[in-house]
Please model this.
Amino acid sequence: MTGAEISETGTEDIDAAILEIGGRARAAAAVMADVPEAAKNAALHAAAAAMRSNEAALLGANARDLAAAADRGFNSAFIDRLTLDSDRIKAMVRSLEDVASFPDPIGSVAAEWTRPNGLKISRIRTPLGVIGIIYESRPNVTADAGALCLKSGNAAILRGGSESFHTSRMIGDSLRNGLKAAGLPQDALQLVPMTDRAAVGAMLRMNQHIDIIVPRGGKDLIARVQEESRVPVIAHLDGNCHVYVDAAADLDMARAVTLNAKTRRPGICSAAETLLVDKRAHNSHLAPIVNDLIAAGVEIRGDEAAQAVDNRVVAATAADWDTEYLDWIMSVKLVNGVDGAIDHIEKHGSRHTDSIITEDPAVAERFVGAVDSAIVLWNASTQFADGGEFGMGAEIGISTGKLHARGPVGLEQLTSFKYVVRGDGQVRP
Amino acid sequence: MTGAEISETGTEDIDAAILEIGGRARAAAAVMADVPEAAKNAALHAAAAAMRSNEAALLGANARDLAAAADRGFNSAFIDRLTLDSDRIKAMVRSLEDVASFPDPIGSVAAEWTRPNGLKISRIRTPLGVIGIIYESRPNVTADAGALCLKSGNAAILRGGSESFHTSRMIGDSLRNGLKAAGLPQDALQLVPMTDRAAVGAMLRMNQHIDIIVPRGGKDLIARVQEESRVPVIAHLDGNCHVYVDAAADLDMARAVTLNAKTRRPGICSAAETLLVDKRAHNSHLAPIVNDLIAAGVEIRGDEAAQAVDNRVVAATAADWDTEYLDWIMSVKLVNGVDGAIDHIEKHGSRHTDSIITEDPAVAERFVGAVDSAIVLWNASTQFADGGEFGMGAEIGISTGKLHARGPVGLEQLTSFKYVVRGDGQVRP
Model:
């Protein structure tokens, strides 16, 4: 760690401290850009070993954070996310080892061609530089995000929620020990030691030393970061995902996919929030799907057609169509075919992930062509919107931005590139 | 055109007018995203034909701008950039036809793979959306940038320098007529009718309707845009490019490449500004290269070694190493081998374009690996840093940013992507 916890500090002192962290990260990034994959993998394995052997100390640090959080009256979901146990530590260790096993994107040739004048142009993947991660009190983000930044040759500045301070510091120490053991600069991974919110502001302004900010957390955090940041941000604000069931949908498939898209894990960003049903499938598809959802414990907020299915369906308000519930709630309405679905998603969607269920390829292609979301699925659950499920390995998050990274943000999305041009004395006419 | 020239307007009115332009651009972008290549090419060819047949009117509009500029006492370089003649109009027409001949990036599959569960994932190129172009009084930018945005399926909002107002409007009308002739929305290309600087500010704040800003012009313009913009910016601020002549350089090649890198066109961003010579090549290489440059009319600002070559060499000051002259001036110094060159470029370079001249492949690879610039050349002139020379067709500019586009920004760099996932009913376990 770069210093002791500072809990009462003036804003100027915080700015100066963050600037110093930034300068050290920039210097470490220059070294990390050019280290062989073996050294980065050695650092990850050493960090995994350190974390495994420090399990008792890690649980102790976590107990300290948990006690403080309990005193401050956080709810059980918050406490659950903050809690480590032996299994969760094993999962973090495994994720470090997984990232070590992914191919190193750095130095790989993304494209290569030769010009008529003999110049050979190569587009080579390089690290982005310094990545700032701002996240809430989820200890695993420290390990996962730190490992992804390390493997992609970047330096990371991590600022986790203050309630996970001791736990995150212990995890960060394991990663820094791993870097040291592999002969790499420890400053490639730094945790911000200040719990003040002003430290976040200082990071968001430090565009000379941070190349990109990745916020991980709830909507308030993302909104604040997107509003204040002078550094480019990769994130998504909302995951208001839709399932559209077309008249040509296979009913069994539509039932299974909708149920999975909503209920597998209702609290993740790729959970479906709104079900749109083709009005031509009103009689055939609407009731079976809505009844499945109700049976699974989902509250349905629907239009008149949905309300007619079951008296437990409540009337949807205008706000429902724009709401990401992240909960056991789903809004349901009839639309006028695929074009009605496209219109609704254009107006109310968040350009994250949307799915169409249909057996008609022409209708499906119309949907995937027109829906302007990072991920558009045909006959599959929205919950596949995930770097691991895409085969990209771990991810640092999902981006709905149109620049640089869109969809799952894995190792390759944490890189930039440069052109290397090899000649034999060419001058330009 | 969307309206008459408005020269005296309140800031609120300007904000409202820009917002209206933005809303129309957003609607047009949704249409443009999904039109076939043939329609876009037809629009470009129709625009080229319109411009060709309107040559007299275009020269008349240009004469009006030139007369106003002469009254306001602009210098001859400014007047030259603003001036159209028959050849320059032909060049613009040709550039529209060239862009029509480039392959359409939209809809192409950048990557495709199948997961073990049968999900077929495709990464499909899509337009960025709405691109704002802010530029100085260079009429050809209206045609070139407009054509690139149109072919890449984006909507463009163009705000050129006020001194080229009538000329740019006439060029914009040709493009809009082309769009209309091809049945495409004219609002895919809009010129901002206000000459007030406040209109630029309104564009830079309008992140709900503009996805990316591309500034084209001098350093003051770029700096203002980068500082003020709430919309992501693709640009470069400086092109402080270096040529490093290693001890293992072929002397003839080093002379030819350095002379070309400086003098072919000293005013473009890829012109070399600083020559670094390996101190082990002091006796063999320094004098011949410096003498070539002096004979060509280049003022040399050098360290002691360079001053010893010729009494016309003046002493470089500390500021010289950070200066992009864009003129017949070059700074020259000895460095301690390739690592000295890398250090100097790290401290003083602008991460745009840098070149090494050497016959030693190991030294070359050390340089291209360590120099963190968008374009790094080995045995070739820095003036190849250009989209056309890279074989990418026309370019809208060069980016030194690390996110999204780096190096020449051509059609492909004006795109985003989405993931299309095709399944047969997969649900996530």
Notes: Confidence is low (pLDDT under 50) at residues 1-7 of chain B. The longest helix of chain B spans residues 11-32. The first strand of chain B starts at residue 109 and ends at 114.
